[in-house]
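the two lines:
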Amino acid sequence: MNKNVTAVIADDVFEMRTLLSKSLKVLACEVLATANDGPSALVEVKKVKPDMVFLDIDMPGLTGLQVLDKLKSENIDVFKVIVSGSNTVENVKEAIAHGANGFVVKPYSISKIKQIMDKYHASIGS
Amino acid sequence: MEQSSSKVVIITGFTLVMLLLLVLVVIALHSISNNDNKLNEIVGNQQKIQHVFTMRESAINRTLLLYKMVRMDDPFEIDEEYMSLLGHASRFMDARNGLVAAIDAGEELEEWDATKPIVSLGAKSQGKVVDLIMADEMDAAGELLSNESIPIQNQVREGLSKMLQGHRIRVSNELEQARIDNKTYYLLVLLLGIVAIALGVSITVYVTRHNTKTETAIVTQKELAEQASKAKTYFLANMSHEIRTPLTAIIGFSESLFSSKQNHQEKVEATEAIVRNSKHLLQIINDVLDISKIEAGQLETEEIKTSPFEILFEIESIIGKQAKDKGLGFKIDYTFPVPKQIVTDPLRLKQILINLCGNAIKFTHEGEIKIQVSCDRETRKMTFVVQDTGIGMAAEDIDKIFESFSQADASTTRNYGGTGLGLDISKQLALKLGGELSCQSQLGKGSTFTLTVDMNISENTQCLYKLEEVSVLQGEDNIGDMHGRYSGHVLLAEDSLDNQQLVSMHVRNTGAEITVVENGEKAVEAGLNGDYDLILMDMQMPVMDGAEAIKMLREIGYTKPIVSFTANAMKEDRKVCFEAGADDYLVKPIDMEHFHEVLSRYLTLVTDGEVVSDTSHGLEDDPGYIELVDSFVEGLPRTIEEMQEALQKDDWVTLQKISHQLKGIAGSFGYPEITDISQEINKHVNAKQFQSVPKLMNKLCEQASKVNSSEFDNAIPTNA
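prediction for all of em together
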């Protein structure tokens, strides 16, 4: 059942996108699209309707948190994960307040991403 | 309630009395005025009678005088009698005028009106007789007198007599009426007076009684309060002593450990004394907490499937040793069958049994302690009879021992110690467990405590029929109970330095790694940053408490095990932990058995000393992941080159960008050193502290060259 999980990745750094998408692939999650800024992330999510979206907190155009707000106001049902280089509780609190379902701190590890995937599976009850 | 109702009674009563008195006064005044009127009327009537009487007498006298005059010859005598006749006329007139003035309309007036014409006729006739006498025509006068005047006068007399009679009757009637009225008033006043007095007396009696009752109640309450206060004062004094005793031992022995003169054996003994006394102190604190919970009605028990044998074996291991140390025997007798499992609160049941057995040992100087276990399938109760051969108690002391803050007598405390709370707690707990606790004792012979608890078993609960079956079970259960060595990384969030050290020591002793942070916020940050196999989270911490930290971690997708530390094991406290998202809980102070049990649940057991480094579920073996690491390692020299070029060109923007990326990537592939240095470079560039960047770049190159020169296999990260 893990096979069917799909995701969109939004990060302005190419290597980050590649790394995350490869990591997700390892965890049997198919990356449908990637975006390098906030507005295109929003477009991709609306277009491909993924199960999950990974949003870098610090992106040009729209920040990850702003994208969260847009997704919320447009009632788009997707499992939202904020990706950030900073692990301060302030950041985490803000992400939760903006409706994030997960928060991953860079550097990535498979284990961290796997936990997010676990939470996603738990949230859909699979 | 009672106060206000008695107030209503008193106010109503007094109001009634006042109203009655008012009515009495009104009646009395009315009676007086009535009597006054009647008296006036009677007096008036008497006067009228007098007038009529005078009129009649005058009329008769005048007739008599005329009769005399008619027969006289001497003119002087006649003149004298004539004067007298005029005098009677004057009296008659006065009386008549007085009567006419006083006469009332109605019957009296009618009577007078009927009499008046004859009276005037009589007077005129008499006048004619007098005229004839004065003219010395005696014969004609005598004839007129006899034939006309006397018959008329007889009518006048009759009329006046009738009037007299009428007035007399009226006076008599008025007198009779006055008498009746007076009697009525008298009876009314008497009756009301009696009622008022009776009411007044009742109220007085009521108020007096009520006051006495209130006073008695106040005195009783005061006495009770004084007694309670005395008991609590005594309890506090005793408590202070009870707490100081183990504390003295703990502090004393702890300080003695600093002494270099102590040999190993002495140090072991001191440590044992510290542990023993600390546990005793904990027991006292738990008792006090329990009793305050009982008093507040907040004592809660749980229903957990439990092996009664396991509980009894535990009792045996604790109490058996204590008994042996004191030279006493200890045994448990079972009356089989006994259910393999019952549903009860095992901790509380153990607490009662330990308390009963502890007392038995305390008060027994020779002989043995025995627990008899039996079950009644009908009532579904399990009975534990704890019997000792100790000092026993007098019958009158038995009830007292179940009261809080008291032992059989105060000297017991001095001789045997103890808080006097244990049996009260045990009794309350027994009730909570659906049973009861009773005691039989004989002074000098020993005591027997009988405890029953509800087994909450069903018809098909499996029973055991001999102790051997139990031993097999016990063997099964004890497998895996040894303290093993574990591998894994534990994050401890705890603000107390002492507890940090203690828990770190225990965790390190198992072979696992530990990282310590001092509050919930740091725990969240650390949890996000690193890969921990287990987070131990204290619940009470400054900045951010444990529950909030656990909640936050769970909210953002942290799914790994979190075990919370809580100050006590009550249902409520545990509920808080579990609701926040903890997987398990540990109670402070740490019970080593439980601590290891919990660690064994979440860390990997190392059986033969080998270190297991695999903590991320074998994902590193995944070809996709290996490929990913491979590409990173391959690309690393190029990345470093780009950074060096940027540094030479003072292109800080590029350097900042690459260092930011590298910081994110390197750690993800298991090169935390590269991430650390990249982060440093990034930080310095951002802060425009460029002078230190070249040095950091050198460090980075050094680390990067290590990566490239090492075998690929070694580069598989451990995520540690």
